[in-house]
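step: validate -> pass
step: tokenize input -> pass
step: predict -> running
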Amino acid sequence: MKKERFWEIDVLRGIAIINMIIFNYSFALAYLRIYNLDLEFTYAVSIASTFIFLSGLSLTISYSRIKNKKPKEIYKKYFSRGLKIFGYGILITIITFLVFPEAFVIFGILHFIGISIILGQFFLKFKKLNLFLAFLIITLGICLQSFRFDFSWLLWLGFTPEYFYTFDYFPILPWFGITLMGIYFGNLYYKNGRRRFKIKDLSNLSIVKFLAFLGRKSLIIYLLHQPLLILFLLIFGFRIF
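step: predict -> pass
step: emit ->
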């Protein structure tokens, strides 16, 4: 039996993918000293927040379809999925270390999403508590950003070391708070895997189909787009600008 997908979630993820490519394109232009588009940092935060929020929301929908299985099977599913995505993050770490050793990715968004899937499964049954924890974690994480520490072993949690620089950094604090917000609203608006609000069906529109397709392929697009952008700019960038 084919699992139902919610076109609006895929579309939001597809829009986020397009914005991510635009932002990373501008970053690559600046890094290669071709052209500085000077896009706001808040733009990048909003893009990442969308992906992470939707990851938490989608976790509730996924769980609603397997919650009657044995706990061992459920844990295995989410540990396996989380480790797979975390593994892609490790691949990004290796590649960026070889190419950009001065700013390689240690704990980027794929590392984070992998860990958040593993952790998030233990919060799926909570309701308002998730909203409270979300605000608490986000507040703690924002406060931590004002400090620098002389150790690096808690970098993944949000304790940023001195003189630390990386292309991509998404520690548990504050970003797991966004995951919990996604779980909270997923349980509220997609309870038991069903849409709990009315929305006009736009799924047959061409633009919606295109955005939804991008949303469904977001992981592979993320993995491939950056090296392709860099290659494109190295070959054509200086001619264009």
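step: describe -> The chain has eight helices and no strands.
step: cleanup -> pass
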